[in-house]
């Protein structure tokens, strides 16, 4: 349940950001447009999707984007993940509160209304049709924290959410930030990544500047004050003592990957030197994200 919920939320956020960028007042460069659309396929796992081998999908992306949202029979689509999550909730009805059941009912209604709201002739602002879905998923996440007894069921739910958020964040950063583009294109993709991570406003308030690679990586990867950072998401899964079925599992720092064992890093003590040039930071991030994505996907 936790993994499906997090997967659906991540995909919906990315699709909403993609629609907002594509429909913005300024025209996106082809490199940014292609990379943003390819990230939808890579993060959701809805291959073949947007692929350089099929350039026609980039010229008219609306059909493929709607398919990634609405095709319940397509693995990785938003509807597929939400329906899989709802099926899991049916198996654990007795563990969920009355308020949680009401949120799940609203989620079903929102899912049923999506096809009518996302008709091709009514797509002036398709990102607005995705807002109620994200709101319902966030409400469900909040209720799981506030209303569920901290038993085995909640622990499995939380482990799944943390694991899936770590994987989704890594896939997103690999899709958007690893490719080498010019400075203007990189800035636009950094803004998209920050928007997907719900920290664009935080970035602007904290740094008072346009997105820069080093600061964006600190906020998305290492900042412990950001609950969606990779450092926080990976923390409970690999450092907490988890009691499951009477067994206690302790993961020591020596057994963790070196980049995790050395942390956690506060923002003020970021291991990325401030005098590194942009290409060196990008190359280091590319290697780290590739390694992390490979380990998490294994």
Describe the structure.
The protein is 66% helix and 2% strand. The chain has 14 helices and two strands; from the N terminus they run ααααααααααααββαα. It has helices spanning 2-22, 30-44, 56-59, 62-70, 78-90, 98-117, 126-147, 152-177, 183-196, 200-207, 213-222, 230-239, 258-261, 278-297; strands spanning 242-244, 247-249. The protein has a two-stranded antiparallel ribbon. The longest helix has 26 residues, at 152-177. The chain is globular, with a radius of gyration of 19 Å. 37% of the residues are buried. Mean pLDDT is 80; it is low at 237-270.
Secondary structure: helix percent? 55-70%
Averaged pLDDT, please? 80
**β-strand amount:** under 5%
- The run of helices and strands is HHHHHHHHHHHHEEHH
Q: Report the structural category.
A: mainly alpha
What is the number of helical segments per DSSP (H or I, 4+ residues)?
Answer: 14
Weakly predicted, low-confidence segments = 237-270
Strand order across the largest sheet: 1-2
How far is it from the N-terminal to the C-terminal residue, by CA?
21 Å
Estimate the global geometry from the Cα principal axes.
Answer: globular
Radius of gyration: 19 Å
Major sheet attributes = 2 strands, antiparallel
The number of distinct β-strands equals 2
């Amino acid at each position: 349940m936790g993994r499906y919920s997090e997967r659906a939320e991540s995909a919906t956020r990315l699709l909403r950001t993609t629609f907002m960028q594509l429909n913005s007042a300024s025209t996106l460069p082809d490199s940014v447009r292609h990379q943003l659309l390819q990230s939808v396929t890579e993060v959701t796992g809805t291959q073949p999707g947007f692929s350089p081998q099929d350039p026609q999908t980039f010229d008219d992306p609306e059909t493929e984007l709607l398919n990634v949202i609405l095709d319940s029979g397509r693995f990785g689509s938003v509807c597929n993940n939400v329906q899989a999550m709802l099926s899991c909730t049916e198996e654990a009805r007795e563990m969920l509160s009355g308020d949680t059941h009401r949120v799940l009912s609203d989620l079903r209604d929102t899912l049923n209304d999506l096809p009518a709201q996302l008709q091709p002739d009514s797509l002036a602002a398709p990102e607005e049709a995705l807002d109620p879905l994200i709101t319902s998923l966030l409400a469900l996440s909040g209720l799981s924290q506030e209303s569920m007894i901290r038993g085995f069921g909640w622990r499995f739910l939380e482990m799944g959410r943390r694991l899936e958020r770590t994987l989704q964040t890594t896939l997103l950063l690999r899709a958007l930030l690893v490719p080498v583009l010019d400075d203007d294109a990189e800035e636009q993709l950094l803004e998209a990544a920050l928007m997907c991570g719900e920290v664009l406003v935080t970035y602007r308030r904290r740094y008072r500047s346009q997105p820069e690679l080093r600061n964006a990586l600190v906020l998305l990867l290492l900042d412990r004050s950001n609950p969606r950072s990779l450092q926080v998401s990976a923390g409970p899964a690999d450092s907490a003592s988890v009691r499951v079925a009477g067994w206690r599992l302790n993961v020591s720092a020596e057994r963790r990957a070196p980049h995790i064992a050395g942390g956690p890093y506060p923002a003020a003590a970021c291991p990325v030197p401030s005098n590194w040039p942009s290409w060196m930071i990008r190359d280091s991030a590319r290697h780290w994200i590739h390694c992390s994505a490979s380990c998490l996907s294994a």
